[in-house]
Amino acid sequence: MQRRQALQFLGALPLLGRPAKAIIRDVSIHRLEGHRDAPAGVDRQHQVQPNHIYEELRPKPYRDAENPTTRKTPVSALYLKIVSDSGLEGVYGPIDREAAIVVDQQLRSFLIGKDALAGETLWDQLYRLNRHSTRGHFMMAISAVDNTLWDLRGRYFEAPVYRLLGGPTRAKVEAYGSCLGFSVQPDAVARQCVALQKQGFRHQKWFIAYGPGDGLDGMAKNVELVRTLRQSMGPYVEIMFDAFMGWDLNYAIRWAKQVEEFRPRWIEEAFALEKIESFAALRRATSIPVASGEHLYNRWHAQDYLKAGALNVVQADPEWCGGVSELVKICSLASIYDAQVIPHGHSLHAALHVVASQSPMTCPLVEFLITKMRSYYHFEKQPLVPVNGLITLPERPGFGIEWDAAKIEKQTPVKWS
Q1: Is residue 363 within 8 Å of residue 340, measured between CB atoms?
Q2: pLDDT, tens digit, 9 for 90 and up, residues 308-344
């Protein structure tokens, strides 16, 4: 009943003085610049990467500085703004530079004159616009546009995006603490994970530092990381691990057999994107759930993995996979296969609103990159921050993005065309 009333209300809004369309008259990209105080000498732990099989490309073991300092550091971000003929604005960001270039050079002129309220039509037309639209930078650009248009529509209807998607399934969404950058030295891990546990992070993801190029010593350190986390936090915290495409199937199975007793929540992106069969084989070989998907760029790509039985957790990123519009479709697909969608946490606005609108069975969590989010939303007045591990849903229209003029030292319209 409440949802039907909400939809009736939304449908009536154009009759209350608003035009029935919102014609796009301007598409622009803005670079915001400023400074922030940042720690130096800590939180720079590398994670294993595909090229680390080569000795000359493999970094030395990392340890935090004993006496870290703080220094003033430049910070900048790109935001996309779309303006309708009535002056209504949609804003989204930060967006990747690669996506911004494509928006400016290839999508901006196409969008001018189109109806910003026709979301499905615009997404389909943008997808059909270029032969390379199915993935990569072009799909990232479509994502940026789609998310910005959702913000504009939220402001048009004076409602948060999650309400336009059908309404919230909970008042707060649980965030898992993503520990990229934190030292994996056992003493540092033990301190940090307990500190995060006390902050309310009941789920923590740690980043594997070693791979096949590091030999048996590296494997032992990877196993020790899991053991240290479980022994430090006890049995009731979920622990997840990210290998960032740095392993092969044999290495992943060998690691999994040694750590199954510690009950990891998942092992993420153990292989390169194209190795669907390796993901499926790993899933068959271990009780540890298998996760991946930040580099899945659309629903068809996700469907390939789901049909192959390759994933328990799909981590499609709304900044890269086609925006809110496409992530919702991926959630529907995943629910058919009883897989979960826990979006990659490159950003947070779009992911939070989609997760909040879906069944908690399909979308139980969002990712919160702890070190990155210290500065990622530097220029926003009300950045999304977990409290006791939970993010309260904002009630502001759209995504609720509002710039903090006091932190913007320079604002520049950016063009590449």
Answers
A1: yes
A2: 999 999 999 999 999 999 999 999 999 999 999 999 9
**What amino acid is encoded at 381 in this protein?**
K
Phi and psi at 194, nearest 5°, equal -70, -40
φ and ψ at residue 292, rounded to 5 degrees? -175, 175
pLDDT-derived band at 61 (thresholds 50, 70, 90) equals very high
- Contacts of residue 325, defined as CB under 8 A and 6 or more positions apart, other chains included, come to 119, 120, 123, 146, 150
Q: What gap in Å lies between CA 30 and CA 78, rounded to an integer?
A: 6
3-class state of residue 387 by DSSP: strand
Note every long-range contact of 50-56, with CB atoms under 8 Å and residues 24 or more positions apart, other chains counting. 50/244, 50/245, 50/246, 50/272, 52/211, 52/213, 52/214, 52/246, 53/211, 53/212, 53/213, 54/213, 55/213
Determine which one of 203, 295, 344, 353 is catalytic: 344
Q: Which pLDDT score, from 0 to 100, does residue 19 have?
A: 79
Query: With 0-12 CB in 10 A as exposed, 13-18 as middle and 19+ as buried, what is 370?
Result: buried
Mark whether 344 is an active-site residue. Answer: yes
pLDDT tens digit sequence for 125-176 = 999 999 999 989 999 999 999 999 999 999 999 999 999 999 999 999 999 9
The Cβ of residue 217 has, within 10 Å, a number of other Cβ atoms equal to: 10
Question: CA–CA distance from 401 to each of 11, 376, 394, 405 (Å)?
Answer: 24, 13, 10, 13
Q: What is the mean pLDDT of residues 258-283?
A: 97
pTM: 0.94
Cα(34)–Cα(230) distance, rounded to whole angstroms? 40
d(CA 41, CA 66): 8
194-227 pLDDT, tens digit per residue, is 999 999 999 999 999 999 999 999 999 999 999 9
Encode burial over 254-271: b for 16+ CB neighbours within 10 A, e otherwise. ebbeebeebebbbbbbbb
Query: How many angstroms separate the CA atoms of 141 and 126, rounded?
Result: 10
Alpha-carbon 246 to chain mean position: 20
What kind and span of H or E run contains 393?
A: none
Q: Residue 417: pLDDT band by 50, 70, 90 thresholds?
A: confident
Q: What is the pLDDT of residue 1?
A: 47
Strand-strand pairing, 266-268 and 238-242 = parallel
Distance CA 351, CA 368 (A): 10
Indicate the residue type of 304.
D
Q: Is residue 326 within a helix (H) or strand (E), and if so which, with residue range?
A: helix 323-336
